[in-house]
TrEMBL record:
<protein>
    <recommendedName>
        <fullName>Xylose transport system permease protein XylH</fullName>
    </recommendedName>
</protein>
<feature type="transmembrane region" description="Helical">
    <location>
        <begin position="90"/>
        <end position="110"/>
    </location>
</feature>
<keyword id="KW-0762">Sugar transport</keyword>
<feature type="transmembrane region" description="Helical">
    <location>
        <begin position="409"/>
        <end position="427"/>
    </location>
</feature>
<dbReference type="InterPro" id="IPR001851">
    <property type="entry name" value="ABC_transp_permease"/>
</dbReference>
<dbReference type="Pfam" id="PF02653">
    <property type="entry name" value="BPD_transp_2"/>
</dbReference>
<comment type="function">
    <text>Part of the binding-protein-dependent transport system for D-xylose. Probably responsible for the translocation of the substrate across the membrane.</text>
</comment>
<feature type="transmembrane region" description="Helical">
    <location>
        <begin position="115"/>
        <end position="133"/>
    </location>
</feature>
<dbReference type="GO" id="GO:0005886">
    <property type="term" value="C:plasma membrane"/>
</dbReference>
<keyword id="KW-0472">Membrane</keyword>
<keyword id="KW-0997">Cell inner membrane</keyword>
<keyword id="KW-1003">Cell membrane</keyword>
<feature type="transmembrane region" description="Helical">
    <location>
        <begin position="58"/>
        <end position="74"/>
    </location>
</feature>
<feature type="transmembrane region" description="Helical">
    <location>
        <begin position="384"/>
        <end position="403"/>
    </location>
</feature>
<keyword id="KW-0813">Transport</keyword>
<feature type="transmembrane region" description="Helical">
    <location>
        <begin position="279"/>
        <end position="297"/>
    </location>
</feature>
<feature type="transmembrane region" description="Helical">
    <location>
        <begin position="359"/>
        <end position="377"/>
    </location>
</feature>
Amino acid sequence: MSTQDDTGKAAPVNTTKAAATAETAVPGAAFDPRLLIREEGLKGYLTEFKRKVKGGELGSLPVVIGLIVIWGIFQGENSSFLTAGNLSSILYYVAGTGLISVGLVFVLLLGEIDLSVASVSGLCSAVFGVLAVNHGMNAWLATILALLTGAAIGALHGWFFAKIGVPAFVVTLAGNLAWNGLMIKVLGQSGSINLSAKGLFSFLGIGNSAFFMGADIAGGYLLAVLATAAMLISSLLERRRRVQAGVPARPFSEILLRTGLLAVAVFLTAWVLNQSTGVPNSLVLFGVVLIVCDFVLRRTPFGRKIFAVGGNIEASRRAGISVPAIRISVFAISGFFAALGGLVLAAEQGAASTSAGSGNALMLAIAAPVIGGTSLFGGRGRIWSALLGMLVIESITMGLNLLNMQSSVQFMITGGVLLAAVVIDSVSRRTQKASGRA
């Protein structure tokens, strides 16, 4: 930053001092955190971290701490919990419901809810089964049609909500019943269609790993290399853009530190999974979806419009944002990912059946992003909350299975975790309002 002195020349300004002055000039006054520059190294990070926590900006901190506690408790009760085989199972079963949760993150950012995703996922897997198995259609074409079916259903829900004014809760609840009935009709009297062990569903099966590398162990490490390289390149490109624009940018030391931490995480994950079945293709698909959707939400005008509508509808209208278009598109995205998640779940089970989308599938899909840190009140959250929430849910499920606990206990504990997440979210919002940052 710079200002003009008496001669008209630019004079440098210490932005760290300016930001600190802005914060202390009026006690309790809010300031723009983007004015902070991290010239103090680790001390600057700690200062910024304390400021965010005091202001109620907890982010993913509670769920990360919760996940560590959960893993510690179950490992203490059963030493098999953190073995490669059990961790592989947790990560494999995260993908199906997690993909459904990705679509729900978009809806929750609007401050709305979609109660139809479980039925839509089951219907779309049934559509795939009828087209690919009963009618012999090419598996990839049947997949595309199934995904388009989910997107069309979601857009229909969004149209009733955005154009007619029917509450999203009512529209999607009606959809949950209607699409479940249509799924039963599509599957016919047998109620189930066994899916071929070849092609798409063999690709997504638990015995196939590392994407294009098949069961080769090197595939997992290759994916880790690609992920690390992508992180480094994107960070460097972002830094160059910010420097050219004359705005504060991350120093090289921070970029290298972040890339190093990511490298440790992905290579450790690949190593653990390679001790068992390798990196499942469904997990790779889930990871790619998370990266793409995170980019869409944080780096594109469309993503910023979603946050704007979720934060303040009237302000969004006055800013020229087409609120109905955003709502319809978001529900279409939710339907698309419900369909994709349904196909992955069908691949896990090896069949499209009337049991798809039943039981607690809907509740777990909704609980995951909320537990992961996405606000139920709209306007706040990240796409990675779908992954974090599913890790918590699957960790509890696998841990209690190792301890031979009944499913009733699993439901009660998961419900308690969900309530705790909502309480933390509510307290966080209240703290932000009190500090003038909401």
